[in-house]
């Protein structure tokens, strides 16, 4: 009698059952292996972020990944938060942060401020730019702070490094000379100069910004000390504003000895770019002879990218400054450059002072007056006595801005 091993059962039903269970086992093993492999990829190496960082990705899908950075976002640290009024629309806008990988902690701090005070129920995306590739840690940790989309881009080398036409010997001498003067920050830094030049003439050309109309610049280690109870992007859109600032301060003489004259050279040659209702008074009290040195403090700015991209005047003005070499032979900043351009090229009605936004960076801060409705509405926790209006008033250009707004308008005939 032949005894059949169950394994070779000739019963078709049994055979089917066996094959099926074998398939299931093999499939389960395969599934297990692929899951293990995938979790390796996703959890250990974070390759997903590395691949996606060159594109864009939705942070929500990565919420479960372990963070080597500090705890992502704690809404309880913003106890006063109330949801924004229900808007039926959003502006076409993004936050914009230029940063080094080493700025990660400060960037996370700033993101938490923005998310906590404003963005957690508006979900505007973030664009991060760097002259080097962002690390996997940077993309993973920053994307975990926001529920909005995050985009990461690398700046083309030619838009970052010192151009070849700059005489390096002359530039080195200038840096050394500036370093000898007390109280001039970044006097010897080439990378700081690259950054200033980039924010003057190249940020708005980045591919990641092409589809956006408005940007809101965010630096590492900034603080927002009131709730932002309305949508500043929509404010810009609804009021036809092109440029918004919080703090205005004078630029140091030592960093920009020839910037005003070089600028006036351009505007004298090209008077067609001067807007008839410009804010020249912010930059000059005597119609252009001398400079007030006033600048909008560009570490905060909300701007219309279409203006920067589309303004022939702005772009030709930048080219003129670039050719003069002052970004490297002196230490021209993006704040003075934007300050002059915005004040001269635009109708002053299109420049907005966000006086109700409490903003602090490196100790300088704008804080609404506690008796104002803005302070109350925003449930602010800033110290008015420490603000640009009080303690730092001597460094504030607010009076010059108000004087500019008060200049009678020219009405077209
Ligand atoms: P400060 O506010 O004038 O003291 O200048 P910061 O050091 O804060 O720099 C201004 C902005 O540019 C910040 O967002 C920095 O993270 C960024 N930044 C400055 N230097 C570099 C650099 O060399 N590379 C990159 N990627 N970002 C930089
Ligand atoms: Mn800064």
Written overview of the protein:
It is a single chain. This protein has helices at residues 12-45, 47-53, 104-117, 136-145, 168-179, 190-201, 232-238, 259-269, 280-283, 305-310, 312-324, 326-329, 334-345, 373-377, 398-406; strands at residues 56-58, 93-98, 126-130, 149-154, 214-217, 222-224, 243-245, 248-250, 294-296, 301-304, 351-353, 359-361, 364-366. The protein is of the alpha/beta class and 413 residues long. The strands form 3 sheets. The chain has an 8-stranded mixed β-sheet. Strands 6-12-13 form a 3-stranded antiparallel β-sheet. Helix 3 (104-117) packs parallel to helix 4 and helix 6 packs parallel to helix 13 (334-345). The radius of gyration is 27 Å and the shape is globular. Mean pLDDT is 86; it is low at 1-20 and 33-67. Keywords: Transferase. Belongs to the glycosyltransferase 15 family. One of its GO terms (molecular function) is transferase activity. This is Nucleotide-diphospho-sugar transferase.
Describe the secondary-structure layout.
Layout: H1 12-45, H2 47-53, E1 56-58, E2 93-98, H3 104-117, E3 126-130, H4 136-145, E4 149-154, H5 168-179, H6 190-201, E5 214-217, E6 222-224, H7 232-238, E7 243-245, E8 248-250, H8 259-269, H9 280-283, E9 294-296, E10 301-304, H10 305-310, H11 312-324, H12 326-329, H13 334-345, E11 351-353, E12 359-361, E13 364-366, H14 373-377, H15 398-406
Parallel strand pairs: 2-3, 2-5, 3-4, 7-11
Antiparallel strand pairs: 1-4, 5-10, 6-12, 7-10, 8-9, 12-13
The structure holds guanosine-5'-diphosphate and manganese (II) ion.
Manganese (II) ion (MN) binds next to loops.
